[in-house]
Specification:
Structural class: little secondary structure
Largest sheet: 13 strands, mixed
Family: Belongs to the Nogo receptor family.
Distance between the termini: 51 Å
CATH architecture of one domain: Alpha-Beta Horseshoe
CATH superfamily of one domain: Ribonuclease Inhibitor
Helix content: 10-25%
Strand order of the largest sheet: 1-2-3-5-7-8-9-10-12-14-15-17-21
Mean pLDDT: 74
Subcellular location: Cell membrane; Cell projection; Membrane raft; Membrane
Pfam families: LRR_8
InterPro entries: Cys-rich_flank_reg_C (IPR000483), Leu-rich_rpt (IPR001611), Leu-rich_rpt_typical-subtyp (IPR003591), LRR_dom_sf (IPR032675), LRR_TM_domain-containing (IPR050541)
Shape: flat
Organism: Chanos chanos (Milkfish)
Order of helices and strands: HEEEEEEEEEEEEEEHEEHEEHEEEHH
Low-confidence stretches: 1-20, 305-463
CATH topology of one domain: Leucine-rich repeat, LRR (right-handed beta-alpha superhelix)
Strand content: 5-15%
Length: 485
């Protein structure tokens, strides 16, 4: 017979609670998966006593100042430390964390700088949150070795410049959020290596110049946001290297609709995706007009072939010292990892851009937050994207964890530009519907074992009476044996 104490312990274990004397004070610890929840307790430092084999650690909404080596265990899979006061991260804090899949350091406004080796060795990391951290620069090799990273959140920082090849190791990155920074130029090799990128958000920056070959590696890019910048011109060849592009936002830039705009005008006429208005501010006679709606007659004294040739010549002159050798194609994306926690619930993914819904299944979308390790369901007949946007709602915390997700005022796509009632066109300039591009072959559904499949098919046949006949045959044979005995 169990003693009363043992029975209580057994009952708590069945309920998913971990009876551990090492659980930090004011925190909640439980199993399946092993989790430590310490959010919103005004901790000034990482609390002591975190169980050494914890898989998920939630420390958001505290006042933690420093992250040092030894604060966490290499068994950690998910680590949330957003909305704290972190000013320093020791470079070896995450050394040896080979199981870490999601790291959220966002909304630490005084972090401002990171050592180049901070994230080295995190080979399984697939989501890295560094939004609103006050970052003004990034070391050139800070993302080295993060080959499984799929989501990178760098929005709402103070970044003015991106090093060449800073993303070159991110072969599987699908979403890159850079909006709300101070970027003023994009160079030829800024995005080199991002062969799997699906969405690139660059709105609300200070972009004045984009190299003609800045997007040359982005063969799978479907969504590009460049609105609310300082662009006065953009070569059509810059967008012509994006064969999968479907959604483009160029509004709220000071476009000069003279001969320099001829190649962009020509490309927009042929584009079959969804585009925003491209409002002209010059020359004066075309101010307020939409570049897409202009006619060839609106470009007097401009020769189409001469304009394109001249712009190409200028581009090569500005990049004569940059190697233009063709890069090898990146490896195909691996399938989404199997989610280890079947009891976790996630909302459905949002509808495709350009009009992201304000909420999904009643759950408000947060600023670039997606579930960590779950594959989004594929819509029937829509195999166009290998990677789909995922929305983070509840992370499926345990029954005893009091967890409140932070409300962010600036949502990932929050802008009046998305709700301006018709500024975003869903047809091409010539009136034809947007063309859907089937870039990826649909994933083959996983079939059950052959025995199960066989039984299922047999049970669904149009002759269920065969099953009855077989049973009757067995009964008759048994009865015959008895009679003969």
């Amino acid at each position: 017979m169990f003693k009363r104490g043992c029975g209580l312990e057994f009952l708590l274990v069945l309920c998913g609670l971990e009876l551990s004397w090492s659980c930090p004070r004011h925190c909640i610890c439980y199993t399946a998966p092993s989790t430590v929840s310490c959010q919103a307790h005004n901790f000034l430092s990482v609390p002591e006593g975190i169980p050494p084999h914890s898989e998920r650690i939630f420390l958001q909404n505290n006042k933690i100042h420093r992250l040092l080596r030894g604060h966490f265990s290499p068994t950690t899979v998910t680590l949330w430390i957003y909305s704290n006061n972190i000013t320093y991260i020791e470079p070896s804090t995450f050394q040896g964390f080979t199981l870490l899949e999601e790291l959220d350091l966002g909304d630490n406004r005084y972090l401002r700088s990171l050592a180049a080796e901070t994230f080295h060795g995190l080979g399984r990391l697939h989501a890295l949150h560094l939004y609103r951290c006050g970052l003004s620069a990034l070391p050139s090799n800070i993302f080295q070795g993060l080959r499984n990273l799929q989501y990178l959140y760098l929005q709402d920082n103070n970044l003015e410049f991106l090093q060449d090849d800073i993303f070159i190791d991110l072969h599987n990155l699908s979403h890159l959020f850079l909006h709300g920074n101070r970027l003023w130029s994009l160079h030829q090799n800024t995005f080199r290596g991002l062969g799997a990128l699906d969405r690139l958000l660059l709105h609300h920056n200070q972009l004045q110049w984009i190299d003609r070959m800045a997007f040359h590696d982005l063969r799978r890019l479907t969504t590009l946001y460049l609105f609310n910048n300082s662009l006065s011109e953009l070569a059509g060849e810059c967008l012509a290297v994006l064969p999968a592009l479907e959604y483009l936002r160029l509004n709220d830039n000071p476009w000069e609709c003279d001969c320099k705009a001829l190649s962009l005008w020509d490309w927009l006429k042929r584009f079959r995706g969804s585009t925003s208005a491209v409002g002209c501010v010059a020359p004066p006679k075309l101010a307020g007009e939409d570049l897409k709606q202009l006619r060839k007659e609106d470009f007097p004294n401009c020769s189409g072939s001469e304009s394109l040739h001249q712009s190409k010549t200028n581009s090569w002159a500005g990049t004569d010292k940059v190697s233009l050798k063709k890069e090898p194609h990146p490896p195909a994306q691996p399938p989404y990892p199997h989610h280890p926690h079947h009891n976790e619930q996630y909302p459905s993914p949002p509808s495709p851009l350009p009009q992201p819904p304000p909420s999904v299944d009643g759950v408000q979308e947060e600023s670039g937050r997606f579930p960590s390790t779950i594959a989004p369901p594929q819509r029937p007949g829509r195999p166009r994207n290998c990677t789909r946007q995922r929305v983070r709602g509840s992370k499926g915390k345990g029954p005893n964890e009091v967890h409140t997700l932070k409300e962010m005022s600036d949502k990932e796509y929050s802008s009046q530009d998305f709700t301006d009632g018709g500024k975003y066109e869903h047809t091409s300039p010539d009136g034809s519907p947007p063309r859907r591009k089937h870039k990826c072959t649909p994933r083959t559904s996983v079939r059950p074992p052959s025995g199960v499949q066989q039984a299922t098919n047999w049970g669904n046949t149009q002759h269920p009476h065969r099953f009855l006949y077989s049973i009757l045959g067995v009964l008759v044979s048994l009865s015959s044996e008895r009679i003969l005995r």
